[in-house]
Specification:
The protein is of the alpha+beta class and 349 residues long. The chain has six helices and 18 strands. The protein has two domains: 115 residues, Rieske Iron-sulfur Protein (3-layer Sandwich); 197 residues, Naphthalene 1,2-dioxygenase Alpha Subunit, Chain A, domain 1 (Alpha-Beta Complex), CATH 3.90.380.10.
């Protein structure tokens, strides 16, 4: 599976990058070190010293610079070696790659493609933990599975009826009813109504309600989802269209999720979730996060098992169903963007 390189990938939660404490990770099979100097400025470099490939994430911050703690080479924020202990001459090639890095929506983002193409306007418009309208909890999970499998899972919510029967208590309507899917410039929008449900206790006792859910799934693998509960008949009155969430009777929440490919067979999943302040409080947030911990663990179990079966199946084939439309459209978009990135290299060759 190809991945888009000219895109912003989530490297960490902002609070995980503390001043003068290098943070090592992998993105697209590349070792990356992110560090914050005493003034708070972020830097992202290739996480391997040019001398003997020791990880710079085990290094020491020295003002605006980072020292490898194997043999002491000192790197500036551009990735250039500026000091080699005991050696005056520094080779011109003594440098590591530097990556554009940004801090937004409570995440640290790293641009993995051509530095000249980095555009912060392409950072998906997630909802950060400090957003005034939402009370959010957050977390992350590491997967022993390819990131694409997590993306596919998030693009096809028909699995909710089965994988999450215990945690979310999702009805089988999620599996039987197909959503409305709209192509976006760098992703897809998926919207659906679930009708004929009983209200959640405490929201509208004794009433039958309708749930609306909408999310954008954006390159490189970011889900931004909201929705709410409405009186019975709302879906029909709107012709199945998008409602005004300010008129929801309950249940308005927001979740931001990001999938980062670490290596070919490992990935990291970042998530936040919580209610709108008009629809809940910290106690509800904690309840939702407890449900999320169970549900996301269910996803992890099935996806890692799926990966093991794929690894044990030579020349496996996947048989799509009509529920896979969002998966197919998004993966085709990723393949096109990745192909377009390679095209200039082919012309140059």
């Amino acid at each position: 599976m190809n991945y888009v390189r000219n895109a912003w990938y989530v490297a960490s939660w902002v609070q995980d990058i503390v001043p003068e404490a290098p943070y090592g990770t992998f993105i697209l099979n590349e070792p990356v070190v992110v560090w914050r100097n005493a003034d708070g400025a972020l830097t992202a470099l290739e996480d391997r010293c040019v001398h003997r490939l020791a990880p710079l994430s085990l290094g020491r911050c020295e003002g605006e610079k980072l020292r490898c703690m194997y043999h002491g080479l000192l790197f500036d924020r551009t990735g250039a070696v500026v000091e080699i202990p005991g050696q005056d001459m520094i080779p011109a090639q003594a440098r590591v790659r530097s990556y554009p890095v940004a801090e937004k929506h409570s995440w640290v983002w790293v641009w993995m493609g051509e530095a000249a193409a980095a555009d912060e306007a392409l950072i998906p418009d997630a909802v950060g933990l400090d957003h005034p309208d939402y009370i959010l909890g957050h977390g992350k999970l590491d997967y022993a599975a390819e990131a694409r499998l997590i993306n596919d899972n998030l693009l096809d919510f028909s699995h909710l009826s089965y994988v999450h029967a215990k945690s979310f208590g999702a009805p089988e309507a999620w599996a039987y009813e197909r959503p409305t899917i709209t192509m976006l410039d760098r992703g897809v929008r998926i919207e659906r109504w679930i009708t004929g449900e009983s209200a959640v206790p405490g929201e509208a006792p004794g009433e039958t309600i309708e749930r609306f859910a909408s999310y954008d799934f954006l390159v490189p693998g970011v889900l931004l989802m909201t929705g709410g509960n409405f009186p019975a008949g709302t879906c029909r009155s709107l012709g199945g269209g998008t409602p005004d969430l300010t008129k929801a009777i309950a249940g308005v929440t927001f979740t931001s999720q990001a999938v980062t490919p670490l290596t070919d067979k490992t990935a990291r999943y970042f998530f936040s979730w919580g209610p709108h302040r008009d629809h809940g409080d910290a106690a509800l947030r904690d309840t939702l996060m407890g449900i999320a911990a169970m549900a996301f663990g269910e996803d992890k179990d099935i996806i890692e098992a799926q990966q093991r079966v794929m690894d044990a199946t030579p020349d496996f084939r996947i048989m799509p169903t009509t529920a896979d439309r969002g998966v197919t459209l998004f993966n085709r978009l990723v393949e096109k963007l990745a192909r377009d990135e390679r095209a200039p290299l082919s012309v140059a060759s």
